[in-house]
Design a protein that fits this description.
Blueprint lengths: L4 E5 L4 H5 L1 H10 L3 E7 L9 H14 L4 E7 L8 H14 L3 E5 L6 H17 L15 E5 L9 E4 L4 H8 L3 H4 L3 H6 L3 H18 L5 E5 L18
Parallel strand pairs: 1-2, 1-4, 2-3, 4-5
Antiparallel strand pairs: 5-7, 6-7
This protein binds zinc ion (ZN).
Amino acid sequence: MSVDLLAIAAHPDDVEQTCGGTLIKMAETGYRTAVLDLTAGDMGTRGTPEQRLIESEVAAKQMLVAWRGNMHFPDARLQNDISARMSLAMKIRELKPRVVIIPYWQARHPDHYRAGELAYEACFLAGLKKLDDYTEPHRPTKVIYSSIYAPVTPSFVVDISAQFDRRMAALLSYRSQYANDADAAALFPQEQEIRERLAAIARYYGNLIGAKYGEPFVVKETMRVDDIVNMGVRSF
Ligand SMILES: [Zn+2]
């Protein structure tokens, strides 16, 4: 299998919040997209890992991804060790993504920043010829960091105005996490609160590029521009 775009994240329901709109938009453009979750969320307070995996499949359909998988690494104690890096590198060789989206390198949740670091190093390893004798080396050409929860200026923002509702539906597929019931209310923000919070965040980033809703990303390389007369975001 080979995909154009692969989003790697720590927990099922992370990509729905960080880059789901962009995944939908790229699938609509005709690219083959995929999601690889590193853990099944087995330390989560609500629901079981089995439930979350089923829900993540429903969400995958909403996001129009061609493939979604789970590494089943330990949740809440994700480690960037050699065995995790190797397993992930082998998966990257199998999926052959042209571009990867990974979590920004600073975050409150240790799994999130570790997922970014682990994914970056696995992408590097995946390109080494002598990693093993049986698989072809493959290294993505571009690493893009999803930065929605980091207090940093994005390198660019993707307009997801047309994809926002579908992304919201994808997130709300996680009924065990977000359903509106009495138990849930005590532990998790209810559906309406989630809708408002996600809309506010997406609105903020959309506003930066003159769109209604947006998703922010950071790249470490300088962005190249060939035509400065036709640039996207107006100054006035
Ligand atoms: Zn997470």
